[in-house]
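Z., the sequence and structure:
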Amino acid sequence: MPTNPALIQLLQSEFQTPNLGSLSSAAMNDRYEAFIWLLAIRAAREEGATVSLQTAGGQQANAPVLRASPGTISSANPSFTHAVISFPGRPVLEAHLGIKLDGKSGVAHEADVAVIEQTEASFCRDNDVNPRYSSALIVAECKYYSTPLPLGLSRSFLGLCREMRAADCFFVANREAPNVSKVLAYGRFNQRTLVLPSTMSAANMQHQFQTKYNDFKAL
């Protein structure tokens, strides 16, 4: 189990800055979401993307300012950072932490990590609305627990999958959860447990994200 300082040091090393804004004093679950966000960014780079950090206003970010609580993509105070992901000849993507997406029902749902099309993201920032589920390439539900994961998490994730495109949704957890995993595996939903820094599970999670990017490049 990584300590609070271990996750902070990992993020600081990745972005080569000591400044992680409110995340420096955030709860472990928020830092864990940032770690999964980082895996999505690394996966894009491994698939040949150019990745940069930008503010909500579209300026180059000198240091990441990461959400420690959910909000809308148009939130500008502070100007939260997102990653811009560019593959040659493909629409530009953005990777966000803790934003709301409108599901099939029109109801907004929090996405711990979301990779969406930049055209959709820009429109939503300009018009103060939530991105639509159909614009998402990756939607990750991240669970960091110091106790066993309750079975109810599988039901809430299944509900999220019904509201999004199930193929785009990923359940990610820091602990082993046999019953949760069994329910999700039975329905062939994307799920990965024991995802922690410097583990095979983290490498496998990153590979799953890479598969999504690879399909995105091909289509």
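The mean pLDDT is 89. Helices lie at 4-15, 28-46, 118-127, 152-163, 178-186, 200-218.

Let me know what you think.
H.
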